[in-house]
């Protein structure tokens, strides 16, 4: 019997879109690590920058899954509240993690960039090709906007409402409690504001 009789045909377009979403998801993971983790040797930062820039130019035709890198994401990174919130939203609303992370990530970045200002400036200039502005804050924010625009270029939703998610304040609070039961109150409050700004 032919194989096609047992297995449904999967659209090449679906395979391509899934690969792109996986790539964007992993790219945002690595970007978060680059932006928030402590001091590193200059050579490590340069390697991060090179990897991220290469991933951005090959996202549409390169499968991260095939390299096995997705399975080796550092466990410490997985534990960051913003990623756990994205995974929680993904499960709650049957959306891909790439969709929910691309919605949450820009507002998360805007909520913490001042704590890691120089790293965000380096990200904007060295990875997102933003020309330095009159202030570091402006440069950093333009870098975040550039990443947001990059995700939108792959037709990922920019807000929760774009993804068909409409939450009341009460529903949002309950969702955070269920998705992040172990987090401290200040972390839950921060996530609430990020989601609120992502509506």
Report what the structure shows.
By secondary structure, the protein is an all-alpha fold. The protein has ten helices and no strands. It has helices spanning 12-36, 42-58, 64-67, 75-78, 81-93, 97-112, 117-126, 136-152, 169-179, 185-197. Helix 5 (81-93) packs across helix 9 and helix 7 (117-126) crosses helix 8 (136-152). The longest helix is centred in the first third of the chain and has 25 residues, at 12-36. The protein is globular. The model is unreliable at 64-77 (pLDDT under 50).
Rg over C-alpha atoms, rounded to the nearest angstrom: 18 Å
Query: How many beta-strand runs?
Result: 0
- Based on helices, strands and strand pairing, what is the structural class? mainly alpha
Percent range of helical residues: 55-70%
- The number of helical runs is 10
What share of residues are in beta strands?
under 5%
Which terms summarize this structure?
globular; mainly alpha; single chain
């Amino acid at each position: 019997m032919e194989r096609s009789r047992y297995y449904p045909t999967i659209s090449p377009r679906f395979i391509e879109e899934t690969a792109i979403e996986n790539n964007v998801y992993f790219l945002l993971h690595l970007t978060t690590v680059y932006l928030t983790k402590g001091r590193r040797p200059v050579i490590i930062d340069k390697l991060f920058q090179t990897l991220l820039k290469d991933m951005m130019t090959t996202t549409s035709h390169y499968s991260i899954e095939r390299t096995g890198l997705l399975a080796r994401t550092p466990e410490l990174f997985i534990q960051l509240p913003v990623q756990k919130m994205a995974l929680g939203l993904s499960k709650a609303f049957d959306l891909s993690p790439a969709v929910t992370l691309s919605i949450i990530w820009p507002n998360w970045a805007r909520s913490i960039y001042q704590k890691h200002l120089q790293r965000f400036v380096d990200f904007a200039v060295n990875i997102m090709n933003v020309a330095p502005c009159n202030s570091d804050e402006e440069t950093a924010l333009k870098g975040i906007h550039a990443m947001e625009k990059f995700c939108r270029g792959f037709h990922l939703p920019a807000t929760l409402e774009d993804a068909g998610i409409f939450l009341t304040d009460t529903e949002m609070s309950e969702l955070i409690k269920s998705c992040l039961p172990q987090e401290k109150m200040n972390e839950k409050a921060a996530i609430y504001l990020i989601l609120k700004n992502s509506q």
